[in-house]
Design a protein that fits this description.
single chain; 127 residues; mainly alpha; 2 helices; 0% strand
Protein backbone atom coordinates (compact mmCIF):
# COMPACT_ATOMS: atom_id res chain seq x y z
CA UNK A 1 0.00 0.00 0.00
CA UNK A 2 1.49 3.34 -1.07
CA UNK A 3 0.97 6.48 0.90
CA UNK A 4 -0.28 9.60 -0.76
CA UNK A 5 3.11 11.32 -0.17
CA UNK A 6 5.07 8.74 -2.12
CA UNK A 7 3.07 9.05 -5.31
CA UNK A 8 4.94 10.19 -8.38
CA UNK A 9 3.58 13.10 -10.29
CA UNK A 10 4.02 13.86 -13.94
CA UNK A 11 3.36 17.10 -15.72
CA UNK A 12 1.21 17.37 -18.76
CA UNK A 13 3.13 18.29 -21.90
CA UNK A 14 3.37 22.00 -22.53
CA UNK A 15 1.53 23.55 -25.40
CA UNK A 16 3.83 24.54 -28.25
CA UNK A 17 4.93 28.15 -28.14
CA UNK A 18 3.77 30.15 -31.10
CA UNK A 19 5.76 33.23 -31.97
CA UNK A 20 3.76 36.33 -31.36
CA UNK A 21 4.37 39.67 -32.87
CA UNK A 22 4.32 42.60 -30.50
CA UNK A 23 1.19 44.70 -30.76
CA UNK A 24 1.49 47.76 -32.90
CA UNK A 25 1.71 50.64 -30.50
CA UNK A 26 2.31 54.31 -30.78
CA UNK A 27 4.84 54.54 -27.98
CA UNK A 28 7.93 56.46 -28.91
CA UNK A 29 11.25 55.50 -27.44
CA UNK A 30 13.13 58.24 -25.62
CA UNK A 31 16.39 56.55 -26.55
CA UNK A 32 18.40 58.68 -28.98
CA UNK A 33 19.48 57.21 -32.29
CA UNK A 34 22.75 55.33 -32.56
CA UNK A 35 24.28 58.12 -34.62
CA UNK A 36 23.43 60.70 -31.96
CA UNK A 37 24.96 58.53 -29.25
CA UNK A 38 28.15 57.99 -31.27
CA UNK A 39 28.44 61.74 -31.87
CA UNK A 40 27.87 62.36 -28.17
CA UNK A 41 30.63 59.94 -27.23
CA UNK A 42 33.01 61.52 -29.73
CA UNK A 43 32.18 64.99 -28.37
CA UNK A 44 33.07 63.84 -24.85
CA UNK A 45 36.36 62.38 -26.08
CA UNK A 46 37.26 65.54 -27.99
CA UNK A 47 36.32 67.73 -25.02
CA UNK A 48 38.42 65.62 -22.68
CA UNK A 49 41.39 65.72 -25.04
CA UNK A 50 41.15 69.50 -25.38
CA UNK A 51 40.91 69.86 -21.60
CA UNK A 52 43.98 67.66 -21.16
CA UNK A 53 46.00 69.76 -23.59
CA UNK A 54 44.89 72.97 -21.89
CA UNK A 55 45.65 71.58 -18.42
CA UNK A 56 49.11 70.43 -19.52
CA UNK A 57 49.91 73.76 -21.14
CA UNK A 58 48.64 75.76 -18.15
CA UNK A 59 50.81 73.88 -15.65
CA UNK A 60 53.80 73.78 -18.02
CA UNK A 61 53.70 77.58 -18.36
CA UNK A 62 53.57 78.09 -14.60
CA UNK A 63 56.55 75.90 -13.60
CA UNK A 64 60.19 75.83 -14.61
CA UNK A 65 62.59 72.91 -14.65
CA UNK A 66 61.49 69.28 -14.50
CA UNK A 67 57.76 69.60 -13.98
CA UNK A 68 56.58 66.50 -15.81
CA UNK A 69 54.68 65.12 -12.79
CA UNK A 70 52.79 68.36 -12.26
CA UNK A 71 52.19 68.81 -15.98
CA UNK A 72 50.79 65.28 -16.14
CA UNK A 73 48.53 65.94 -13.17
CA UNK A 74 47.40 69.21 -14.77
CA UNK A 75 46.63 67.33 -17.99
CA UNK A 76 44.68 64.67 -16.09
CA UNK A 77 42.71 67.24 -14.11
CA UNK A 78 41.96 69.30 -17.20
CA UNK A 79 40.87 66.21 -19.15
CA UNK A 80 38.52 65.00 -16.41
CA UNK A 81 36.95 68.42 -15.81
CA UNK A 82 36.46 69.10 -19.53
CA UNK A 83 35.08 65.62 -20.21
CA UNK A 84 32.60 65.92 -17.32
CA UNK A 85 31.49 69.35 -18.49
CA UNK A 86 31.06 68.12 -22.04
CA UNK A 87 29.15 65.07 -20.78
CA UNK A 88 26.67 67.29 -18.92
CA UNK A 89 26.00 69.33 -22.04
CA UNK A 90 25.72 66.18 -24.18
CA UNK A 91 23.25 64.51 -21.80
CA UNK A 92 21.06 67.60 -21.67
CA UNK A 93 21.15 67.86 -25.46
CA UNK A 94 20.20 64.20 -25.95
CA UNK A 95 17.36 64.49 -23.46
CA UNK A 96 16.03 67.63 -25.13
CA UNK A 97 16.26 65.92 -28.52
CA UNK A 98 14.35 62.90 -27.20
CA UNK A 99 11.67 65.11 -25.66
CA UNK A 100 11.34 67.09 -28.88
CA UNK A 101 10.90 63.87 -30.87
CA UNK A 102 8.26 62.65 -28.41
CA UNK A 103 6.31 65.90 -28.64
CA UNK A 104 6.53 65.89 -32.44
CA UNK A 105 5.30 62.28 -32.63
CA UNK A 106 2.43 63.06 -30.26
CA UNK A 107 1.38 66.03 -32.37
CA UNK A 108 1.55 63.98 -35.58
CA UNK A 109 -0.58 61.26 -33.98
CA UNK A 110 -3.14 63.83 -32.82
CA UNK A 111 -3.25 65.39 -36.28
CA UNK A 112 -3.75 62.00 -37.93
CA UNK A 113 -6.44 61.11 -35.41
CA UNK A 114 -8.25 64.40 -35.98
CA UNK A 115 -8.01 63.92 -39.73
CA UNK A 116 -9.48 60.41 -39.56
CA UNK A 117 -12.23 61.59 -37.20
CA UNK A 118 -13.14 64.40 -39.58
CA UNK A 119 -13.27 61.96 -42.50
CA UNK A 120 -15.47 59.56 -40.56
CA UNK A 121 -18.00 62.19 -39.52
CA UNK A 122 -18.76 63.35 -43.06
CA UNK A 123 -18.93 66.93 -41.87
CA UNK A 124 -18.37 69.49 -44.59
CA UNK A 125 -15.06 71.21 -44.11
CA UNK A 126 -14.89 74.97 -44.28
CA UNK A 127 -11.94 76.28 -46.18
Amino acid sequence: MRSHLAQTRTMAPMAPQTPTTPPASTTVSALPSVGARVLAFLAILIGGTAGGIIGYAFVDLQLTGDSSLWAGLGALFGAVVAALGTAVVVILTLRAMGEWNTIRAREELAAASAKSNAANRNVPRVR
